[in-house]
Design the sequence.
């Protein structure tokens, strides 16, 4: 059975060739563009299962493409992996902020790129996941409806904000979130919280997780994610 179709928008010929070769070797169908405006058109006309999107492109840049795709009801569910030059932390934060699902930094190892593609596709189309029921991740159990959590069978005490933070991350495994995004999802009312206060809440949640604290991964200069497959 032929695998999913992937759109690659990349203007550097050697990198594009590497990406195309490795994706096709894994059985994926590949559509590619070296230009931002054409990339946006193909994303709308080819209905890809995933978009690999460079940020620095001739014509429309990657951030604007990402923004437009996430604003369009037809394409907003298509997952996007950004391909960025190493050290462009500010661009990574901006990209995640407008809806990108993950990122790969140049230079990258082809095996890592394929693994990221496989992981994002495994999650399925981007959507608001239902936050109900009981979720089990390794030694962690979270009852979203009951606002309760257990680690290795022992109940843990979390504040309301800490529970919302844990619950949100647990229901979105593998996806990177910036501090600003987490603030928007977990802060309620008129609480005065800065992006760095999120770090304090994360540390508190990790402390409660004990030996499972590494389930919440720090993405340096960007934010956090809950490990997929934890």
Sequence:
């Amino acid at each position: 059975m032929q695998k999913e179709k992937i759109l690659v928008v990349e203007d550097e010929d050697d990198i594009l060739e590497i990406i195309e070769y490795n994706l096709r070797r894994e059985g994926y169908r590949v559509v590619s563009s070296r230009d931002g405006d054409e990339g946006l058109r193909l994303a709308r006309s080819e209905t890809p299962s995933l978009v690999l999107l460079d940020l620095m492109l001739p014509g429309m840049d990657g951030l604007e493409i990402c923004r437009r795709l996430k604003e369009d009801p037809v394409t907003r569910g298509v997952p996007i992996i950004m391909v960025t030059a190493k050290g462009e932390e500010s661009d990574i934060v901006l990209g995640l902020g407008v809806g990108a699902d993950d990122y790969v930094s140049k230079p990258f190892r082809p095996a890592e790129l394929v693994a990221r593609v496989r992981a994002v596709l495994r999650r399925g189309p981007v959507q608001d996941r239902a936050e109900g029921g009981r979720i089990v991740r390794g030694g962690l159990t979270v009852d979203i409806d009951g606002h309760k959590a257990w680690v290795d069978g022992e109940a843990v005490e979390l504040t309301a904000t800490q529970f919302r933070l844990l619950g949100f991350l647990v229901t979105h495994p593998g996806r990177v979130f910036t501090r600003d995004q987490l603030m928007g999802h977990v802060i309620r009312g008129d609480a005065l919280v800065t992006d760095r206060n999120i770090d304090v809440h994360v540390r508190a949640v990790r402390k409660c997780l004990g030996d499972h604290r590494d389930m919440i991964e720090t993405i340096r200069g960007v934010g956090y994610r809950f490990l997929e497959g934890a």
Summary: The chain has two domains: 5-123, 134-226.
